[in-house]
Amino acid sequence: MSRLTLLLALLVGLVGGGLAATVLRPDEAKVRAIAAEVVAATPAPSTGLDQTAVERIVAELLDKQKAERAPQSEAALDAARLNPMIEDYLLGNPRILQRVSIALEAELTAAKKAETSAALAELRPAIYEDPRQIVLGNPDGDVTLIEMFDYNCGYCRQALPDIAALLDEDPNLKVVLKEFPILSQNSVDAARVAVQVADADVDYWTFHQALFTSRGQIDKAAALKAAADLGLNPITLEMGMNTPEVAEQIEMTYRIAQRLDISGTPTFIIGDEVIPGAIGIDQLRLRIRNMRACGSTSCPAT
Description:
The protein folds into three domains: 3-70, no CATH class; 75-127, no CATH class; 130-294, 3-Layer(aba) Sandwich (Glutaredoxin). The protein contains 14 helices and five strands. The protein has helices at 3-16, 19-24, 28-41, 44-47, 51-69, 79-92, 94-128, 154-169, 185-199, 204-213, 220-228, 234-239, 244-259, 281-294; strands at residues 134-137, 143-149, 173-179, 267-270, 273-276. The chain has a five-stranded mixed β-sheet, sandwiched between helices. Helix 3 runs antiparallel to helix 5 (51-69) and helix 7 runs antiparallel to helix 13. The longest helix is centred in the middle third of the chain and has 35 residues, at 94-128. The N and C termini lie far apart (88 Å). Mean pLDDT is 82; it is low at 1-26.
């Protein structure tokens, strides 16, 4: 057997994990040296291989050997074997899923809060500084409570006594009411009348309470009657219901709601928090108190 044949046999064994590789395990430099020696001693016509060709073969075989001996990567793992292992582990350690769920919820809550804070900052002029908005209580109050409401909302009706109590007990509270008619066309018609009442020189709070304490559906007729009781001309109000100024006032509230992802009534806004639903006077008091204490509706524990 020629030395070149011996070398190639050695390389085959090296790649295949045969006896020669097991016993000798030559490193790459040694194999290359043997290859060079064999090529130098073997006439080219008898082999058809020059030193460059043998070097290339050696390099390719050594690379193949390294690849085959490398640990199997995660990407190459069989999903049919891996998935049951993961499932068994999680079933045997269910608290891991609980911790993951808690962490995910905390992350989503933080992301939502950051998104809401950014939207509130962007919308601040529309929410707090609209010259046509309905303001109750102290116009220069140190805390502002926003309520978005629908006159046909039962939960808004339940929240009315809470707003009344807060206005009565807190001389530094500013309350802003925003018409947000979303429940029916009757609600839209009543809101169109209410926007005009808010611009008139009458007591809007009296009008507001009258609608929320009346029976049945609140519609255009109910709103016109409550306005007429304050001395306003119902014919003039009905003619003004479809003016661009009235429509724009209600559209502004819709845009605020869309940007803040608000879809129900009542919705309160205090500081950096959007609060869906009638949460009760105690929770409203707590948030107002926190705003004064730390500038946020939720103060760090001390």
